[in-house]
Amino acid sequence: MKVVLNDEMRLIDKISMEKYGVPGVVLMENAGVSVVNEIIDNFNLDYKFTIVCGKGNNGGDGFVVARHLHNKGYKLNIFVLGDKKAIKGDALINYEILTKLGIGIKEIKNDDTLIQLKESIISYPIVIDALFGTGLSKEVQGISKKAINIINKYSKYTISIDIPSGVGGNDGKIFGTPVEANKTVTLCLPKCGNLVYPGAEYNGKLVIKDIGIPNEAIEDIELKNNLIDIDIVRQGLPSRKKDTHKGSYGKANIIAGSFGMTGAAILACKSALRTGTGLLKLYVGESINHIVKTGVPEVITVPLQEMRKGVIGINHIEKIIKDSKEANVLAIGPGCGNTSELAEIIKQVLVKVDIPIVIDADGLNVLSRDKEWFLEKKSKIVITPHIGEMSRLTNMDIEEIRYDLIKVAKDFAIKWGVIVVLKGASTIIASPEGEIFINVKGNPGMATAGSGDVLTGIITGLIAQGLEPLKAAITAVYVHGLTGDKVARDKGEYGLLAGDLVEYLPYTIKDIVEDNDSICKTF
Ligand SMILES: NC(=O)C1=CN([C@@H]2O[C@H](COP(=O)(O)OP(=O)(O)OC[C@H]3O[C@@H](n4cnc5c(N)ncnc54)[C@H](O)[C@@H]3O)[C@@H](O)[C@H]2O)[C@H](O)CC1
Ligand SMILES: [K+]
């Protein structure tokens, strides 16, 4: 599903109106009605509403909601923030309809009127937040900030129209104080700010509603941001035919594990196998070979002589490079240790290996010392940093990255020509062509040791089976998140282990292929 930036949404609106002749007031009517439908599905006439509108079109949507709720017999109070003379265009049309109907709208201009807002919410406790939408452009201050604080403190249930007011539509930045919604009804397409943290924290349940914008208007512009959904993933999963053998499902080579970090190798290997890889080879230090072998007997291990205990020496690089000619993918990094040996192996591999390479964890840590090696690459590279690894790769502060996830991932992908999988509460995938794919599946239970090794294994397994690296990353991130959601549904988030992800992985893939779990139906 496509995702929009503020300017893109404005342009789509404009094309709908000017090229296809759908009047703006019709779009606003549809927007309001879509919110009303969501309300009547969930609230009977006993519920009372406080509707808080801004001066822009988001407020206009709020006026439409007010008219329809009034018509259906709901009790409500309507507030507009600031000088009502500033209301114009379609919002003004809807404001005037309300005044012609004799429906009172209170202006919030000062602290006295703010008290009225507070009193209204105490007795009419379901709040419709129509303060700011995609037009929010600066820090929320003064009276707006106070109003938002009152909403957050006294509302029993808040429904935000389009995006919680105070969240930036482009990137999920927080502009002062955001409304903490229980539900957000976003219009036409999700906004990036609905999906990316920290803003995504404030949506509550996110619902996407059609407002009658012609598909043609959306197709007229090239949208580069996408939400990963089940349809993209289902197309991506490799099919399995009857007359096949293990060679039909690809060969993956993995360099993982070191003394004390055998678990990372085991998790990555098991995940690649559970994803359907036909043949898997693991390069591992000879002293830990038996541990890995016991943990995952299905893998072919290649025990390599060590120069230091548990660390693969660089003297085996020729074998790794030669073997890659027979394989479909090479993954490097999980639990390898941040060693000079690994740095040398990665450099050589980047220069000489021409199959797709997945680089994770310590592989990224060693590369952060010398990123120029990316420019020597002979094949497609997928890197899977979490925010700390991204900070080392970019020399940026973690906080700086956290507030600009999409831009940071995109800039890095374009600059170094690699596919970036920036892992977090929402995972951002950026392609070297500047496309973005956002995953919102998954839960905080997955913030646990080994979870990233599982993701590396899934990406590797999908590339082994013939998926293009970008498609493999997109599919893997969703499958990984969905698997976490299935584990959390059964066991809760607290005790979720990376090993649980491995165990549930086959069921996730089965349910996606067979379309038999409702958890797959949401994005
Ligand atoms: N296709 C659609 O999705 C449609 C969406 N609609 C709704 O319209 C809004 C966007 O409307 P717009 O008028 O562009 O902006 P806003 O209503 O978000 O508010 C802008 C308003 O507020 C002022 N402003 C901006 N930042 C601040 C601030 N920090 N403090 C105070 N004031 C601020 C700004 O100057 C404007 O006056 C979209 O989200 C949908 O809800 C349409 O209804 C139909 C089509
Ligand atoms: K809003």
Automatic annotation (TrEMBL):
Alphabetical UniProt keywords: ATP-binding, Isomerase, Lyase, Metal-binding, Multifunctional enzyme, NAD, NADP, Nucleotide-binding, Potassium
Binding site for AMP: 423-427, 452
Ranges where the YjeF N-terminal domain occurs: 9-219
Residues the record lists as binding K(+): 58, 129, 165
InterPro entries: Carbohydrate_kinase_pred_CS, CARKD, Nnr, Ribokinase-like, YjeF_N_dom, YjeF_N_dom_sf
Reaction equations catalysed: (6S)-NADPHX + ADP = AMP + phosphate + NADPH + H(+); (6S)-NADHX + ADP = AMP + phosphate + NADH + H(+); (6R)-NADHX = (6S)-NADHX; (6R)-NADPHX = (6S)-NADPHX
Domain YjeF C-terminal: 229-512
Pfam family, one: Carb_kinase
One GO-annotated biological process of the protein: nicotinamide nucleotide metabolic process
Binding sites annotated in the UniProt record for (6S)-NADPHX: 57-61, 133-139, 162, 264, 335, 386, 453
Free-text remark on how the cofactor is bound: Binds 1 potassium ion per subunit.
Assembly information from the UniProt record: Homotetramer.
Function statement: Catalyzes the epimerization of the S- and R-forms of NAD(P)HX, a damaged form of NAD(P)H that is a result of enzymatic or heat-dependent hydration. This is a prerequisite for the S-specific NAD(P)H-hydrate dehydratase to allow the repair of both epimers of NAD(P)HX.
HAMAP family, per the entry: NADHX_dehydratase, NADHX_epimerase
NCBIfam families per UniProt: yjeF_cterm, yjeF_nterm
Record PANTHER family: ATP-DEPENDENT (S)-NAD(P)H-HYDRATE DEHYDRATASE (PTHR12592:SF0), ATP-DEPENDENT (S)-NAD(P)H-HYDRATE DEHYDRATASE FAMILY MEMBER (PTHR12592)
Family statement: In the C-terminal section; belongs to the NnrD/CARKD family.
Name of the protein in its database record: Bifunctional NAD(P)H-hydrate repair enzyme
